[in-house]
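Long-time lurker. I teach an intro course on protein structure, and each term I like to show students one example going from raw sequence to a predicted 3D structure in token notation. This year I'd like something fresh instead of my usual example. Would anyone be willing to generate the tokens for the chain below so I can use it in lecture? Attribution to the forum is fine with me.
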Amino acid sequence: MIRKNSSLGFCLSTLLYSGIINASVDPSSDINIQPYQGTQVSHYLLTWSDEFNGTEVNEKRWNYRLDCKHWSQQRKANNTVSGGLYRIHLRKESVDCPNNNALQPGQQKGQKPAGKVQYTGGGIISKDELRYGYYEAKLKMPSGAGWHTSFWMMRNQFIDSTSKHDLNSNIELDPVENDSIDLKHYQIDAHQWSPTPGTEDPGRKQNKVGTKQVRFKDETRLDDFHIYGLEFTSTHLRYFFDGKLQKETSFDVNQYKHNDISIWFTSIASFLANTKQVDNSHLPAEAQVDYVRFFQTPKQIDELQ
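-- Reply from a regular --
Happy to contribute to a lecture. Here you go:
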């Protein structure tokens, strides 16, 4: 039980002794840190984090994204940690991908897929699964057209976890998806990949909820560091950019089944946003993450006890 302290806010000692923080928060995190200043959320405590202050990806905390999709193969070697940053290395490399059905740059509609890709990307997926709370990350998109970079949440479909999950529920939450052909735009939305009767798109493979195209007319560029946040509760989703609310949408558990989710950071070469080819002049490149943090209210923490 977490009790409210009249002078110090919510008492952290109970949380510390519960073992939640000791097990899930990066030891280099400030345990008293709050969501980014100005973000309109309240009564949150840090319960999970990675500050990326080591010298390699913490494999006790993260799995790797290892697949061929669109124009790249995702490789373990393309994920490193140095200088206080997690880095996804984006490279021009020819790799056989016989099961990849995507046409490659230069191929025409109707041609047989090449069976190989010319680029490699990467990504990491948290081993811990989370649900309700406030998710926040500080990241920088790569420059140069051709890369789809995301901070998002979903079950890890690369691992067979059928014994652990309700397979009728599979949601995806997207605080930010950027295609590097346009560094003044990103998309936010949510998906329910396993629909149930009564959802807004019955009969489809997914329900897409609360999509918004965020476009900047000022000097903002996404190849600078920015802070992306998502508040996920049993009733709604609220998306933030540098502390400013961008979108609030209903996502009620009674309409859209909710399930536990992992945190993902990924960057893949892609044709999305009508991209015709990768800008090789910017390669090698990097997507960079300064930190990722997950906060919960005392009530949400109590519900896990």
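Some talking points for your students: Residues 184 and 221 are 5 Å apart (CA to CA). The radius of gyration is 20 Å.
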